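Hi all, long-time lurker, first post. I run a small reading group and we've been trying to get comfortable going from sequence to structure in the token notation. Rather than ask abstract questions, I figured I'd post a concrete chain and ask someone more experienced to write out its structure so we can walk through it together at our next meeting. Sequence below, copied exactly:
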Amino acid sequence: MDWVSDLKQWLGEGLYPHNLRRIMECCDRGLKENEQALAAFVVRSVVGELLREWDGQAVTVAETRRTERALKPRLEAVVAGLERGEPAAALGASLDALVRAFVTL
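-- Answer (accepted) --
Happy to help. Here is the structure in token form:
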């Protein structure tokens, strides 16, 4: 699952607008390769919505850090599960936590 390694790398570089597109591209590869499609779709959807909200705006460092505090640990939990090869059902709690964190931003 090479896309997961790339996803981990881009997440490590932060949730900045220029990285969000790269994260989405990683998830697109996961979807095309049909590897952990549910996780790839959920991560892509959350990151895509975030990018849509930020697109064309000057995003402050404070906003980026607040978003990272809320989402990054949950994104990292999903990636860790993917690295362990957990099935979609086992990733459900991590994916749910990610979505819940996003909607409460």
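A couple of things your group might point at:
The mean pLDDT is 95.
The longest helix spans residues 61-83.
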